[in-house]
């Protein structure tokens, strides 16, 4: 870091972070408007442009002194993680208004001889004007309040309390528990909870990354990066138990199939092979494993043993490697402790399940034996 700062390379490297996390709300607005327009089978480019227009209208400009001349510009404050909630709201509202106006036929109709590219631009012109007027009015209304702008209002009323909730260990543990309960019912728990996790914890993760790039202390322990890395090597632990501990032929076979995928966080062979779904003996350890793992990593961070996370790693990154990249040797030690904890959680329940499976297999073999 000292070399990068002294050589001036740090500013160039940080440019990558500034142009991604630093203005992530712009990408979010464009992506959300595009997907929504695609869903309603409307012009995606028009939806993107209208949404960006509305977002920039309600985003306050700041006056800077450059030399002797004042310059108006957008700061990164509301283009990064802090503006994500306003960006989502604006993209959804503007695209829905645009879709509604096109469906109601409120558009400029051009003669059939006009090329489609040109006529499409004119068709959306009324939508552009109306949405611009609406959001200029919104901007004026908020400027007369104590908040000054919609960003400050939304951040104070909605985003700040949500960040407070997401900063609570109990909230993350509850989300992890609920996700595993869905899995037990055969529903993809990660997909169900992903929207909640992204809403609550992605802004905190981006704030940590921006703080790291600025050389500041990381403000948040709990974030989406932390959850991906320290949810625990629970699948690997269970696969190892199946491979090396059980006597049941079925469970051992599942262990052989599952061991390699489990290194990469893939648990479906065990979920539907044991099966874990609707298996009463598996419900408790399956639901508690990620909860215990997150609690271990959280308290290791609180006492200062584990550094806070500001690096985004894929959920499929194998344990030990992910722990080392995110937290050095402390990350490895924490993941090893998590691995042992998961084994201890599963052990008594898996022994009972193994005994049950062995009995079933023996009974099945006896039935297949030829009678004298």
Describe the protein.
There is one protein chain. The protein has 372 residues and is mostly helical. Helices cover 70% and strands 3% of the residues. A hairpin with a 2-residue loop joins β1 and β2 (69-73). α15 packs antiparallel against α16. 34% of the residues are buried. The mean pLDDT is 88.
Average pLDDT score: 88
SSE pattern = HHHHEEHHHHHHHHHHHH
* DSSP helical segment count: 16
The SS-based structural class is: mainly alpha
Compute the number of strand runs. Answer: 2
Uncertain segments of ≥5 residues (pLDDT<50)?
none
| Spatial order of strands in the largest sheet | 1-2
Helical proportion?
Answer: over 70%
Q: Termini, distance in Å?
A: 81 Å
Which band does the percent of strand residues land in?
under 5%
How would you describe this structure in keywords?
single chain
Set out the fold topology.
Elements: H1 2-7, H2 9-18, H3 24-39, H4 44-58, E1 62-66, E2 69-73, H5 84-103, H6 116-123, H7 125-143, H8 150-166, H9 169-184, H10 189-213, H11 224-230, H12 234-244, H13 249-263, H14 268-273, H15 280-302, H16 321-368
Antiparallel strand pairs: 1-2
Helix pairs in contact: 3-4, 3-5, 4-5, 4-7, 8-10, 9-10, 9-15, 12-13, 12-16, 15-16
